[in-house]
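so my prof wants the structure for this chain in the C-alpha cells format not the other one, which i didnt know existed until like an hour ago. anyway here's the sequence
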Amino acid sequence: MKLLRIPDPLHDSEVYSSDVVVQNITEAEEYYKKLGDFDLKLKIGNHYLNKYHFESMIRNYIHLAKSGHMKISFKELLRLIAEGQLSKYSDRIIEYYNLMVSKDFLPNTPTLMNAGAKLGQLSACFVLDMKDDMSGIMKSSTDAAMIFKSSPRRRYCGINFRRSFRTDLIYENYRYNYGCGKTGWKKKGCKYGNNRIMAS
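here's what i got, hopefully its the right format
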C-alpha cells in the first residue's frame, strides 16, 4: 500500500510545480544503481520504504521531471523525506489501509500482489490492436508476449480482432491458448479477443 501512496509526496507544494521547471534527470537516474543502499533507509512517518518503493519514487520523479513539474532536484526530495518534512503523507497510507481492512475498497489482484514487490506492476488488463496482415499479427503477438513476460500471473491481454477478418480464429486458437499456462498457486493469466460479427 505504501507503493500506492508514493505519488502523493511528489505532488506536495514544496515538490510539484504547475509551471515548467527544468531538472537534471540524469542525477535521478543514477539512483537506480543505488537501490540496495536505500532499502529501508527512508521513511514517510513511521512507514519505511523498501528498495522497490524507492525505485518507484525514482520512476515517478523522472516521469514528472520530464514534464517539467518537479520544483526541486531528486537529491533535495530525498533530503525532505529524510528530515521528515513529508511525513504528513503517512496519514494517507493509514487511510488507504483502513479502506482495505473495512472492505470499503479493494484494489485489483495485481496491485495486492505486486505493490511494494520486485515486479511493481499494478495494471491488470491490456488491450492491443491487430492489423489484418502478417506484420500486424506478429507485432500483436510480440506485444502480448512481452506483457505476459513481465508477469504471467493475473495478466489479462485483449486483442481487437475487428480489423483482422481472415486470421483471427487461427491466431486465437494457436497463439492465445498456447501462451497462457499454469503459473503456480496464483490464478493464471487470461487472453481474450474482440471480433465483429457481420450477418449477410
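also thought this was worth mentioning. The first helix runs from residue 2 to 5.
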